[in-house]
Amino acid sequence: MGFRILIAACLTVLLPGLAWGADDAARRAQLAQNERDAARQVRDYDAGLVGDYFRLGAFITDDVALLKGATEGEAVVHERIAAAIERGANEEEVKRLRTEQEAATKARMMYRERITEWRSRQFTAAPSEQWFQEYGRWSRAGIPELLAWGEARKAAAEAWGRVAEGLVPGYDADALDNLKEEAYRLDTEREIAEMRFNWAREREQVLQSDKRVTPDGELVKRVEELKRLQEERIKIKRLENERQREVRRLDRSIRSADAAFRKAWESAQRAAEERARNGKR
Amino acid sequence: MGSGERVAGSTMRMIPAYLVGVALLLGAGRVQTRDGRTIDGEVGFDENAVVVRSSGATKVPFDQVARVMTRVAETAHVVIGRSGAALPEGWKSRDIGSVKVPGAAKCDEQGVFALTASGWGAWGAKDSLHFAYRTMKGDGQIIARVGKLDVSRGPVVAGVMMRASLEPDAAMAGACLYPTGEVRLPRRPTGSQKDFRSGDELSPQSWVRLTRAGETVSAFRSADGKFWQLVDTHKVSMGDEVLVGVAAWTTGNAWSSSATVDSVTIVPGTPGLTYFPGAGETAQGILLRDGNFVAARIVSFDPAVGVKYDRDGRAGVYATERVARLVFSAGPADMAGPAADKPGILLTSGDFIDGDITEIATKPVDWPRPPQLKATARSVLFGAKSFEVAKEVIAIDFGAVEATPAAYEVRTGDGSVTRAKAVTVGTGGVTVDGQLVADVVEIRKL
Known about the structure:
The complex is a heterodimer of chains A (281) and B (446).
Chain A: H1 2-14, H2 16-22, H3 25-52, H4 61-86, H5 91-125, H6 129-137, H7 143-166, H8 173-207, H9 217-280
Helix pairs in contact in A: 1-3, 3-4, 4-5, 5-7, 7-8, 8-9
Chain B: E1 13-15, E2 24-33, E3 38-46, E4 49-53, E5 57-61, E6 65-69, E7 77-78, E8 92-96, E9 104-107, E10 113-117, E11 129-137, E12 140-150, E13 156-163, E14 172-177, E15 183-184, E16 187-188, E17 207-213, E18 216-222, E19 229-235, E20 241-250, E21 257-268, E22 285-288, E23 293-295, E24 297-302, E25 306-311, E26 314-318, E27 323-327, E28 344-347, E29 352-354, E30 356-363, E31 372-379, E32 383-388, H1 389-392, E33 393-397, E34 408-412, E35 417-420, E36 423-426, E37 429-432, E38 435-437, E39 440-445
Antiparallel strand pairs in B: 1-5, 2-3, 2-6, 3-4, 4-5, 6-39, 7-21, 8-11, 9-10, 10-21, 11-20, 12-17, 12-21, 13-14, 13-20, 14-15, 14-16, 17-18, 18-19, 22-23, 22-27, 24-25, 25-26, 27-33, 28-29, 28-33, 30-31, 31-32, 34-35, 34-39, 36-37, 37-38
């Protein structure tokens, strides 16, 4: 469906000039219909998305309202473009509306990203009392680790929530990146807390499976060795996040450099066109 | 009113306070006279008179006393708001722990608390919630009705809570209504809890009650605020002074929701299994057919032997035909005595199970709890049914009371009530039918 919207958008961006030039009423009607189709598809698509993410419940109540507003805002601009095309508006007016529609699309995509990407992560990280009780019931031995895991889940969920809420119109990209990095770090800590809980539970299950066994020197030594290796694994887990952070930083730099490159290319192209026009004179 | 001034319409006299020194002073109490007066103050006994000392001292001839109480417990405190103030006098509110949206609490003049809150709840290592509270010393209980959980913006939990402090990791206990309609007992130190139940398993219960007796906290639920069902009970050590109040939280700390809680009542003193407004404190014991009540711990019942009891470490037995009712907790006023010729078990749920009592004995219960006292009734309709006394039973009835004639009822500190033909008071104490009785807390003229 996204692809169809893209095609409709491309057609309406690229073809108006041709349509106007040909003064073709049927062609204009087709273009206007394309815009109305785009408006309908935008509305349908986001309604479907809300259904798909219904499971996120109260985490997205506010976002759904914002997304609906943005969706309707974009759909209305599509309909205004359709009306403008039908009444034979000039190219400048359609271009102005198209700019407005692109801004509306950006806002809508931002709220979609809030839900599909960051709220989704927040929801996954968020613990519940029921979860805590269920794990607590069959893992009494790992209660300190379970308490730590619960707090790590809360911290990660809150961090992802801050990322989601950082996505507002005109957001500061650097500030948002900082929020994301903090969330990735806390999410890694959440995973580490889960690893620690599982290891503690498994160790204790073995140690407590036979009350006749008393922890002698060899057993204590083996447990210490196990714990040492597990801590080594945790160090690597943190290093993995550091490495991923570096990858994300590079990707952002690449995107930024790519944008600068394209901007430079457009400048160069405009200069070449200018020279060509001047040469013809 | 000066000393020695005559009290209008009676022969009571205000007397110089130094003269009261001869009286046996017993403590904060109350005297009700036969002409309908109530005098509060420090109560003592003088020769054939009761002395009440507050700012001055009042001497009431004993033959004019309708009722004297030498120990008046702090009464239940029903919470209502003050005009122009957000919260009742002595109350504060604040967020506990990290909350997404700052919460708020206010209480109107009808006693309705409106709470808005965010937070993860009262579980795990640290709480995050909103709490409106005052302080309470020692044992006591708090009762409330959760009027509304507004779940339009997301799930919200509300109820009553006691906390050792405002720190997020403080020891605490609550009796809280969850969006599914379930009442649960959140607590810290944490530990294994009962399974969460789905909404369709539950009948509507909007009343919650949290009791504290020493380190034992218990959560109760009720549909009507009269008959209570025990939800859960645990040990939570919180120190002598606790913060007691109403609490609310959302379940995901990502949104804010609201709830209303009304009919908030704080009752100081050691709580029983039940609570009926005005019923007072009821000791466990045996109501005899002659109308006397013997405070005692019920040990067992066997139809062939009778009721075995323990009173201050002394064991005893009452034959079945002498027993009208075994009382385990306060009951409603309209069920104060057993119905004639209708044996059975009065439950905390308000149900009365008809049937002959076949046994009361200590029996195994669900692991890991130690064996508990259980009562069994057998009826033609249902066969034999057993009930755990400490969790479900208000009273067990054997037969009707046929009270012996008496002029007074005398209640002692342990909760025993003796019907007497003659009572005299003096500086030496209280004499009941010729015998000196210690620790008298109430004398009532019948």
